[in-house]
Amino acid sequence: MIFTVSAVLLFGAASVLAVKTRSAGGGAAIVLFLFGFFTAGTGAYDPIVSVVKATADALSALGN
């Protein structure tokens, strides 16, 4: 079974969780940055999306 989730939805939920738990670490900062980035759609969209996609592909390949 294949389950896909929008990156905006994923990072949005993670951002809400980070704010609710008052996380102030580096991980929370990265999550908030990625949420803002994906919602803004700036000119740096293509390079960052390719890095996120490559990371997701690598993580999914580890499970196989």
Descriptive notes:
This protein has 64 residues and is an all-alpha fold. 73% of the residues lie in helices and 0% in strands. It is built from three helices and no strands. Helix 1 packs antiparallel against helix 2 (26-40). The longest helix has 18 residues, at 45-62. The model has no long low-confidence stretch (mean pLDDT 78).
Provide a brief overview of the structure.
The chain has 64 residues and is mostly helical. The protein has 3 helices and no strands.
What is the N-to-C succession of helices and strands? HHH
Report the major sheet: none
- The average pLDDT is 78
Shape estimate: globular
User: First CA to last CA: what distance?
Assistant: 14 Å
Helix content percent band: over 70%
How big is the Rg?
A: 13 Å
Count of distinct strands: 0
The low-confidence runs, each spanning 5 or more residues with pLDDT under 50, are none
Structural class: mainly alpha
Number of helices: 3
How much of the sequence is in beta strands?
under 5%
Topology of helices and strands:
Layout: H1 7-20, H2 26-40, H3 45-62
Helix pairs in contact: 1-2
Features:
single chain; 64 residues; mainly alpha; 3 helices
